[in-house]
Amino acid sequence: MKLKILNIEGKETGRTVTLNDQLIPQEPNDHAIYLDVKQYLASGRQGTHKAKERGEVRASTRKIKRQKGTGTARAGSIASPLFRGGGRAFGPRPRYYDFKLNKKVKRLARRSALAYKLKENQLIVVEDFNLEVPKTYEMVKIRNNLNIAGKKSLFVLPESNKNIYLSSRNLPDASVVTISNLTTYDLMHASAVVFSEKAIDILNANYES
Would 199 disulfide with which of 132, 179, 204, 209, CB 3.0-4.6 Å? Predict the structure, then answer.
């Protein structure tokens, strides 16, 4: 599949880039996307929640009332979950939410996400660019030229670029990632994905047979 290459002014350069046929599956796999996004979000959970159970509550150990003759149920500890201030029964404990996902499933999920972006015309390729100094205004101007202002936009670069990153940091609906750190969540979360020309070349190289 051939895609037109634009410059940062939003105009066509007259050149095209070819996407590797292996990048785009015939049928996007929604379940693979679901699993990959779920695993990404789960790995980001802190998991430090904790509630005290009856053995961890600081309380008196005396028997709070006599065993028989009260007409109510037996009670031996004020730390029981039945009483106010007592421990919590089966409360949350620290745990890891992350789970293993096979590499082939993750690759299929990314390919499926790219297929959706192509199908919905949300993928743009621009020639490689750089900013002399970090200025938010420059990034705003580039987004306006590409007609993606007001959209959740994702810029995919071949390598880290400090000036471009700092220029987009103050924009709440724009983010910058390198091609090596691109995730399915990033692709699905964005309404417009802007690849640099070299990032496409690296992407094609990763899926060469």
Answer: 179
